[in-house]
Design goal:
Layout lengths: L2 H26 L3 H26 L4 H28 L12 H7 L7
Helix pairs in contact: 1-2, 2-3
């Protein structure tokens, strides 16, 4: 029995758990900004681990898997950032329990903790 496919399967399962937790977090978070943050961070890590597990299980695909991982690392956070800025620009409010809106402070020209 080869050990690399077993390790790849375990890493893929851990990635799938992160993807599941991201889905649960998207449902449970109170506003669009928290949902984007939950979805971005957990799905980025989950996707990386899932793809890495596939690459370990099938070493001939490893080069292509690394390219996919690099693509995900760059595009997922950037797209989430742009969507959050667009939501803020459209006036979508933060959840009731939110303490600070650093982007609104920056737009108002206030210097504060956010810098």
């Amino acid at each position: 029995m080869q050990i690399l496919p077993v390790i790849g399967g375990l890493v893929s399962i851990v990635g799938a758990v992160f993807l599941l937790l991201a889905a649960i977090g998207i449902i449970r978070m109170p506003d669009v900004y928290n949902r984007m943050q939950t979805g971005t961070k957990a799905t980025t890590l989950g996707s990386i681990l899932f793809l890495l597990g596939i690459g370990l299980a099938e070493p001939s695909w490893f080069g292509k898997i690394i390219l996919l991982i690099v693509f995900i690392v760059f595009t997922n956070p950037i797209s989430s950032h742009v969507l959050a800025r667009a939501a803020h620009f459209r006036g979508i409010r933060l959840a009731e329990g939110s303490v600070r809106d650093c982007l609104a402070d920056d737009e108002a020209g206030e210097k504060g903790v956010c810098e």
